[in-house]
Amino acid sequence: MWKGITEFQKGLLNQLRIPEPAVQVEVASGGPGISLERTKEGWKLLLAKERNLARASLLLEENEGKAVGWRLEEAPTYERLGAMLDCSRNSVPRPETVKKLMGILCRMGYNTLQLYMEDVYPLPGYPYFGYGRGRYTKEELKDLDACAKALGMELIPAIQTLAHLGQSLKWKPMRKLQDCGDILLIGEEETYRLIEAMFSAMRECFSGKRINIGMDEAHMVGLGAYLEKNGYENRMELMLRHFERVHSIAERFGFEPMLWSDMFFRLASGGEYYAPECRMDPKVACSIPKDTTLIYWDYYSEKKETYDRMLEKHDQLCPRVIFAGGAWKWSGPAPCNSFSISLAGKAHASCREHGVREILLTMWGDNGDECSPFAVLPTLQYWAELCWSGCCGEKDEAWEKGLKNRFRLASGGRWEDFLLADQLVFTPDNPAPGRCGVNASKTLLYEDILFPLFSPALDLPAYRAHLRTCAAALEAAGETEPPVWKPLFSVYGALARLLGRKAEVQEKLRRAWRQKDMAALRELCEKDLPGLKAEAEVYAEAFRRQWLQNSKAAGLDVFDLRIGGQIRRIETAKERLEVYLQGEADTVEELDETWLPFDPEEWKRGRRDIPAPFWHEIASPSNIASI
User: Fold this and answer.
1) Cβ of 541: how many Cβ atoms within 10 Å?
2) Strands of the sheet with 71-74, listed across from one edge
3) Which residue in 71, 3, 60, 76 sits closest to 37, CA to CA?
4) Is 31 left (phi over 0), alpha (psi -120 to 50) or beta?
5) Fewer CB under 10 Å: which end of the chain, C or N?
6) The pairing of beta strand 42-47 with beta strand 293-297
7) What is the DSSP letter of 485?
8) Model confidence at 276, in pLDDT bands (50, 70, 90)?
9) What would the mean pLDDT of 371-375 be, rounded to a whole number?
10) Integer Cα distance of 530 and 570 in angstroms
């Protein structure tokens, strides 16, 4: 039974559905983090923060068999450990999904969650802001904020106040606010009325003081409508004026802003972001208010020295810095936990040495958000253990065992099973932990069956064999995982089957066409292409079920268009080959085309599997989206 817990802790245990312990657990306040001691009566538990009971309960469950006198102490490396959930790349997670994620994060030991919302929240007076995008209601956001508070977590709105607003600015009634592309028109009073409405909405829905105001990647600011109206102006001064105005609005609504550091860093460094050897302009540092925090984001660097130098440069710019790493789920339908984890230790070691007090793990969803946030839970657990264990070096067997045990207790899943989805990223040319951004699960999935842009470079027989092994392992894992995770493994099992079949069909089609093997071409029409279509339909159905379970319906249409296009192209390939076999056409033109490498520079380096993040570049060499 619990002894000495507060009313807040009673509510926390109830919300997390943590059962009453079989033995007495005496809880008191104190210490640097979490302290457990096994006693004759049960356990003594010392907590620095009330909310630490969530992780402490996990540790109690993990160590219930320990002998009297056994002790464990954990002191977190960081004051705040947070995650960011992307809600703006077509998938808007249902409130129930966000609550589920918060519960898992809370038990892992996280204490903040940011909701990245470009335009998926209500803005009175701006009906086209988030129109048709599945935006949250005020009631939903208020409820999520209350849920976070009950867990002892801080729910932070992450909005955009300069760039990344293309989904709203594309509508005609909003274009008067557009500088160029996805960037707001600086200096216009109507722009600042819009921004005031944003802060007003956030103040109504969120109880905390902190807000992420974005302002990243506005590379073309001042070069569109602003240039036409005002002529060229120093863009550093433009950015600073805009930031001062936005900061004053945030201050008026009681917010303390944080923002991505790249634009300020570029201003101070003379144009580059990842420029560890640059000289910083002190005038930019003087312009950053004392209540403002910069977020140094780095999802790519594979050397600790890069993090070291970048943190040193950030310290010259602003003493309040958050480090944002990546839980890679944005390069395709499959996650890249292995790559994310391979960077985590280097980033953590550097952050620890440089006194960073807050970590943010981003779960972006670029180009359609086709990867579930739950697929990167291993990366989130790994960072939790780095934070709480104090580890900063080689991980021994006991550390690895604890990591896997705590993952199981926090999520209900098996560590090894969740990492199986990473295997969809690995090809003979891209072994674990994988190269940055390489994700053959997307390129092979969406490239055209008649004119593929990527797979001719791959060892398709080897990849086919690998994917068949993946499919069997993922399907077996889905049978043993708890029901809550079966839809996730159903999607990845179906995807592996589809990719394996497509690799086989692509290779067979190319070979049969080169050799003009009419029997093989007939078999493709009668058996292989219909089988591939059936696999695509199975994957599409599994994906739709998972999407509608986890996310609002908006955005699913894009997936349907993409996978529906694939299915139709399979049908077209069958029809075109049949016409050729019947002698009604001299050739199939696409199959006669000489293939060229998508990225000649990568080809020269001997790399055959390359990053290609955008569907419209993968699906066809033809014009899909522009004039």
Assistant:
1) 14
2) 2-3, 24-29, 42-47, 34-38, 71-74
3) 71
4) left
5) C
6) unpaired
7) G
8) confident
9) 98
10) 8
pLDDT tens-digit series, residues 420-444: 999 999 988 899 999 999 999 999 9
CB 29 within 8 A of CB 46: yes
Taking Cα atoms as reference points, which of 380, 392, 370 lies closest to residue 325? 380
CA angle at residue 471 from 468 to 476, to 5 degrees?
Answer: 130
- CB-based burial label for 140 (10 Å; 0-12, 13-18, 19+): middle
Q: Which of 239, 361, 349 is nearest to 297 (CA)?
A: 361
According to DSSP, the residues that pair with 29 across neighbouring strands are 47
Structure tokens at 508: 């067979």
Q: What percent of the chain has pLDDT over 70?
A: 100
Measured N-to-C along each axis, helices 377-389 and 397-411 cross at an angle, to the nearest 10 degrees, of 120
Residue 133 structure tokens? 């995008």
What are the tokens at 276? 């560890």
Given a contact cutoff of 8 angstroms between Cβ atoms, the answer to whether 292 and 318 are in contact is yes
Summarised one tens digit per residue, pLDDT across range 531-563 is: 999 999 999 999 999 999 999 999 999 999 999
β-partners of residue 2 are 25
- Joined together, the tokens standing for residue 493 give 């099992």
Q: Using CA atoms, how far apart are residues 424 and 410, in angstroms rounded to an integer?
A: 25
Rounded-to-integer distance, Cα 626 and Cα 540, Å? 27
Q: What are phi and psi of 202, to 5 degrees?
A: -65, -40
pLDDT at position 392:
66
Residue 522 has pLDDT above 70, yes or no: yes
**pTM: predicted TM-score of the whole model, two decimal places:** 0.97
Task: Answer for the pair 56, 45: CB distance below 8 angstroms, yes or no.
Answer: yes
DSSP string covering 25-78, please? EEEEE-SSSEEEEE-SSEEEEEESSGGGHHHHHHHHHHTTTPPTT-EEEE--SS
Mean local confidence (pLDDT), 165-174: 97
358: three-class secondary structure by DSSP:
strand
Q: Are 318 and 364 in contact (CB under 8 A)?
A: no
Beta bridge partners of 358: 80
Per residue in 319-338, pLDDT tens? 999 999 999 999 999 999 99
Tell me, rounded to whole angstroms, the distance of Cα 565 from its chain centroid.
25
Contact between 271 and 301 under an 8 Å Cβ cutoff? The reply is: no
Q: How far apart are the C-alpha atoms of 152 and 54, rounded to whole Å? A: 9
CA nearest 336: which of 437, 428, 486? 437
Full DSSP string of 340-353:
HHHHHHHHHHHHHH
Question: Angle, to 10 degrees, between the axis of helix 304-317 and the axis of helix 337-353?
Answer: 50
- Residue 394 confidence (pLDDT) above 70: no
Question: Cβ-count burial of 313 within 10 angstroms (0-12 exposed, 13-18 middle, 19+ buried)?
Answer: buried
Q: Which two tokens stand for residue 315?
A: 């310290």
434 φ/ψ sector (left φ>0, alpha ψ -120 to 50, else beta) = left
* Rounded Cα gap, residues 494 and 506, in angstroms: 18
